[in-house]
Specification:
By secondary structure, the chain is mainly beta. It contains 1 helix and 10 strands. Strand 5 and strand 6 form a beta hairpin.
């Protein structure tokens, strides 16, 4: 299993970023996928999950209405569109295989992370 995130960077409050996660080594379309983030000095925080069929999407209250998770099963790629970014969104963002419970129970199927910094 390999998950490689990209798209992070530094942005001003109110700005946008789009994260990508390239998946390989498993049947991507058969798994729920999630984004998890970890801010400096804090524990991991679940952000969002998308099921296999892309019919429902789930978000934490802290990002609901601002972030959109999506997937392209043909490209084995997971995305996170982040709009209206706030300083409190600053964190290392990880792509994770599995739903909310699975992704938060173990780092085994996480990528290496991509840094998002929101600062004036």
């Amino acid at each position: 299993v390999q998950l490689v995130e990209s798209g992070g960077g530094m942005v001003q409050p109110g700005g946008s970023l789009r994260l990508s996660c390239a998946a390989s080594g498993f049947t991507f379309k058969a798994y729920e996928m999630s984004w998890v983030r970890q801010a400096p000095g804090k524990g991991p925080e679940w952000v969002s999950t998308i099921p296999t069929g892309d019919t429902n999407r789930y978000y934490s209250d802290s990002v609901k209405g601002r972030f959109t998770i999506s997937r392209d099963n043909a490209k084995n790629t997971l995305y996170l569109q982040m709009n209206s970014l706030k300083p409190e969104d600053t964190a290392l963002y990880y792509c994770a295989r599995g739903g909310r419970i699975t992704s938060m129970s173990s780092r085994r199927y996480w990528g290496q992370g991509t840094q998002v910094t929101v600062s004036p």
